[in-house]
Amino acid sequence: MDRITPRQALRMVVIAATALCFLMPLYWLTISALRPEADIFRFLNPFGPWTLIPNQLTADNIVGLWSGSFSRAIVNSIVVALVTVIAGLMVCASAAFALAVIEFPGRGVVFTTMIVSFLIPFDAIAVPLYSIMRGFNLQNSYAGLVLPGIGNGLAVFLLRQFFQGIPKELREAAMVDGMGWFRIFWSIYLPLSRPALVSAALIMFIFQWQAYLWPLLIAPSNDMKVAAVALAQFSSAYNVSFGLIFAGAAFLSLIPMLIFVFFQQYFTSSVAATGSKE
């Protein structure tokens, strides 16, 4: 067995220390969610062993979190995110296929416009978009929450780059066999693009899961609040429930983290393939 050189050992120590620095905020968030609210900031100054090692654990914050309206908000977030992913993949994959494969007049202009669209901050278009949605009476509805997330420019860009890496000989052979564009898209490109589809789904899921401004504008009613909005409302001008905030933040961080860890191999492989050429 090869011996580890001092340089390799030092590199491993640096990598472990860096990983620990990134994990420390998540660890502190988790233990704060399990501490009594009076102990959350009690041991921060001066810094000591009880800052990172809780001397008392309780489930009161978790019980309080789920006994209120937060559970309904979580359900709303899950429904909105899942519907956005399913509908968004259909729209974004179709648009990416057209931009990558089908020759049509103005394709370059459409692609440039799409690139510019996801460079514009969403906050800049939130109010005009709200006016449009209000004109269609989509306030406090799942449709109003879902529609802005379906056409994701970054997802289209990622899928288009991946589609361009698929050899054109496959579609040429399919066209010789009499396949149309839809069948080529459905039978050839989609099965070969699983990593890119998973990455696009992750992008759209995170976009909806962490959205705050748009749900606050379009769905302010108690029945339609999403988790990010419900979490922010644990803080008011007269009272801040830090225990509930930490518990809710820990849970909201856990779901996308588990999803990303599970699909990590697809995400990294699709990002690596976005620069490939025919």
UniProtKB/TrEMBL annotation:
Keywords: Cell inner membrane, Cell membrane, Membrane, Transmembrane, Transmembrane helix, Transport. One of its GO terms (biological process) is transmembrane transport. Residues 74-263 form the ABC transmembrane type-1 domain. InterPro entries: MetI-like (IPR000515), MetI-like_sf (IPR035906). One of its GO terms (cellular component) is plasma membrane. Pfam families: BPD_transp_1. It is found in: Cell inner membrane; Cell membrane. SUPFAM superfamilies: MetI-like. The chain crosses the membrane at residues 12-34, 74-102, 109-130, 142-163, 184-207, 240-263. It is a multi-pass membrane protein. The keyword DNA repair does not apply. Its main location: membrane. PANTHER family: ABC TRANSPORTER PERMEASE PROTEIN MG189-RELATED-RELATED, SN-GLYCEROL-3-PHOSPHATE TRANSPORT SYSTEM PERMEASE PROTEIN UGPE. Belongs to the binding-protein-dependent transport system permease family. The complex is composed of two ATP-binding proteins (UgpC), two transmembrane proteins (UgpA and UgpE) and a solute-binding protein (UgpB). Part of the ABC transporter complex UgpBAEC involved in sn-glycerol-3-phosphate (G3P) import. Probably responsible for the translocation of the substrate across the membrane. This is sn-glycerol-3-phosphate transport system permease protein UgpE.
